[in-house]
Design goal:
The chain is mainly β. Helix content is 9%, strand content 31%. The strands form eleven sheets. Strands 30, 32, 35, 36 and 37 form a five-stranded mixed β-sheet that branches. A four-stranded mixed β-sheet has the order 6-12-11-8, with no helix packed on it. Cadherins are calcium-dependent cell adhesion proteins.
């Protein structure tokens, strides 16, 4: 910069302001030369706007107005082209013609497109030839070879280059990758790996079971490989069917009808497989279908007997006698061996055993009397079993309908509660009755009503048959009084229309009641007249409730007092180890087990206290009892028994019967070891107890058990 005022004497200085002043651009204040302090990048900022001014160095005042100028950065080729969207993936159908567009790639160059060729880009392919090509100016990638087959190679990796300077030497370049996948088209027809197949299946295979799976190979994928299978020929068109498994594209052959080895041993099927979606462009490659032959061999299986009918319907009268033939079932062995068949009834379907079947002929007969009213239809299962292989069992079903006969007499349809008012008039209908019959005649029921011969001439009531299976009961007089007769019994004779007809006599109970003006019964009890005039029914109920409450209270008090009584228990010092009581008379009772104090017998060295029996009221009590001391001999037992004998003879509280007490205590140094009758009998003790027979009738039982005389119990 230079001002016209500047004479070159240094009186003028220059200053700079604006974008990048002092940081990017500086000015020589003496000469006005502007310099850049660092490298400039047009791609960051292409223009800078600056302002310059000339000032008087002494006064620092402008000598010229401020001027503005723009610095433009001139571009050089310092940026290579870049693929901002790379890497790329694309797809193209296989077998596409040459020149089919695949994808377009685009590279951008940051250099100035308006200055030179720095931003002019051309495209070229570095990898992927000869299968693909790229247009230099547009970057569109196209197929370069025809009939590229996905089944041979389904994916290609391309490398595309973009170079500026119109591709000239010295230009900068950038690359990207493009992955091209060949998509499938239906260009491969299905083909069976084999021209024929053979499968063996048992004849017992159930309907809808899978016999075989076959598959035609197709190199295509997805919808282009979807198949359709069908049976186009063969002798198994109605026996088998084929469907497609959508997941595996297999043909599934299943059974439509039951197989029978005895009827047919093999089947031949002609099966066609075809693509569901055919591309007309590739029809020239051949038919998109294929044929194969499937032979199915039926294997023989030991089958259960088969009945000639799935369901047999039979009828029999409920009057049939035991042994009456109802009908016949038949079954045969379907196998070649034709084994004989034996019949039986599944008793789970005939729990009451109403029927029998002949094991050889299949004839069904009655085994019990039948009753249609109990069970009108019997559904039974007949089993047919092979004689040679009892495990093979066939089942047939028989429905036996019981025919009705007139074996039930008619009766009232319900329990009637008939009343007649005391003020009833002659000829008044007091009850309409009907009848029911358990039988079921084909033409329906017809009942006839009449009074029995004994009641036909009564003066109180009459009966009118309405001819519609109902009858009306009418009064013959008036002036009914409860005090004279409160209940009337009217026998009614009912006859049905069966052949032969049956009849029954039913009694209608008629009560005489006091009625209001509308004829509605109020009171029907004759006793109502004898009640006190001032005592109503409610008062009687209240009195009865009070009496019942008092009785309950009394019972509760008595029960509580009984529970408070001291129970019959033993002292803690007593310990009963064994207690056998025999009673030979009517005294005492089973609760009398306290005839002796067993505590002293367990320890004979203690003083025995006088204790009163609990089951009797003593009149005299002894102040003391003798003390037993230890005596080293069996004399201790003799003295014990002797003391007991004297106590029993003089004690009024002793029971008046023989009492045998057996104790486990053996004494101190007892020679006899045990007093148990069982142990004594089996021991070899030489102890003599004959003296027990001299002690009187109270010890007769003990003498019999331990004595050795001829009258001994065990001698």
């Amino acid at each position: 910069l230079h001002s016209d005022v500047d004479k070159g004497d240094g009186s003028i200085k220059y200053i700079l302001s604006g974008e990048g002043a002092s940081s990017i651009f500086i000015i020589d204040e003496n000469t006005g030369d502007i310099h850049a302090t660092k490298r400039l990048d047009r791609e960051e900022q292409a223009y800078y706007t600056l302002r310059a001014q000339a000032l008087d160095r002494l006064t620092n005042k402008p000598v010229e107005p401020e001027s503005e100028f723009v610095i433009k950065i001139q571009d050089i080729n310092d940026n290579e082209p870049k693929f901002l969207d790379g890497p790329y993936t694309a797809g193209v159908p296989e077998m596409s013609p040459v020149g089919t567009s695949v994808v377009q790639v685009t590279a951008t160059d940051a250099d100035d497109p308006t200055y030179g060729n720095s931003a002019r880009v051309v495209y070229s392919i570095l990898q992927g030839q000869p299968y693909f090509s790229v247009e230099p100016k547009t970057g569109i990638i196209k197929t370069a070879l025809p009939n590229m087959d996905r089944e041979a190679k389904d994916q290609y990796l391309l490398v595309i280059q973009a170079k500026d300077m119109v591709g000239q030497n010295g230009g900068l370049s950038g690359t990207t990758s493009v992955t091209v996948t060949l998509t499938d088209v239906n260009d491969n027809p299905p083909r069976f790996p084999r021209r024929s197949y053979q499968y063996n299946v048992p004849e017992s295979l159930p309907v809808a079971s899978v016999v075989a799976r076959i598959k035609a190979a197709d190199a295509d994928v997805g919808p282009n490989a979807e198949m359709e299978y069908k049976i186009v020929d063969g002798d198994g068109l109605g026996v088998f069917k084929i469907s497609v498994d959508k997941d595996t594209q297999e043909g599934i052959i299943t059974i439509q009808k039951e197989l029978d080895f005895e009827a047919k041993t093999s089947y031949t099927l002609r099966i066609e497989a075809a693509n569901k979606h055919v591309d007309s462009r590739f029809q020239s490659l051949g038919p998109f279908s294929d044929m194969t032959t499937v032979k199915i061999i039926v294997e023989d299986v030991d089958e259960p007997p088969v009945f000639t009918s799935r369901l047999y319907s039979m009828v029999v009268s409920e009057a049939a006698k035991v042994g009456t033939i109802i009908g016949t079932v038949a079954a045969h062995d379907p196998d070649v061996s034709n084994s004989p068949v034996r019949y039986s009834i599944d008793r789970n379907t005939d729990l009451e055993r109403y029927f029998n079947i002949d094991a050889n002929s299949g004839v069904i007969t009655t085994a019990k009397s039948l009753d249609r009213e109990t069970n009108a239809v019997h559904n039974i299962t007949v089993l047919a079993m092979e004689s040679q292989n009892p495990a093979q069992i066939g089942r047939g079903y028989v429905a036996i309908t019981i025919l009705d006969i007139n074996d039930n007499a008619p009766e009232f349809a319900m329990e009637y509660e008939t009343t007649v008012c005391e003020n009833a008039q002659p000829g008044q209908v007091i009850q309409k009755i009907s009848a029911v019959d358990k039988d079921d005649p084909p033409s329906g029921h017809q009942f006839y009503f009449s009074l029995t011969a004994e009641a036909a001439n009564n003066h109180n009531f009459t009966l009118q048959d309405n001819k519609d299976n109902t009858a009306s009961v009418l009064t013959r007089r008036n002036g009914f009084r409860r005090q004279e007769q409160s209940v009337f019994y009217l026998p009614i004779f009912i006859v049905d229309s069966g052949s032969p007809s049956l009849s029954s006599t039913n009694t209608l109970t008629i009560r005489v009641c006091d009625c209001d003006a509308d004829g509605i019964a109020q009171t029907c009890n004759a006793e109502a007249y004898i009640l006190p005039a001032g005592l109503s029914t409610g008062a009687l109920i209240a009195i009865l409730a009070c009496v019942l409450t008092l009785l309950v209270l009394v019972l509760l008090i008595v029960t509580m007092r009984r529970r408070k009584k001291e129970p019959l228990i033993f002292d803690e010092e007593r310990d009963i180890r064994e207690n056998i009581v025999r009673y030979d008379d009517e005294g005492g009772g089973e609760e009398d087990t306290e005839a002796f104090d067993m505590a002293a017998l367990r320890n004979l060295n203690i003083i025995r206290d006088t204790k009163t029996r609990r089951d009797v009221t003593p009149e005299i009590q002894f102040l003391s009892r003798p003390t037993f001391k230890s005596i080293p001999d069996n004399v201790i037992f003799r003295e014990f028994i002797w003391e007991r004998l004297k106590e029993a003879d003089v004690d009024p509280c002793a029971p008046p019967y023989d009492s045998l007490q057996t104790y486990a205590f053996e004494g101190n140094g007892s020679v006899a070891e045990s007093l148990s009758s069982l142990d004594s009998i089996s021991s070899n003790s030489d102890q003599n107890y004959d003296y027990l027979s001299d002690w009187g009738p109270r010890f007769k039982r003990l003498a019999d058990m331990y004595g050795t005389g001829p009258d001994s119990l065990y001698s």
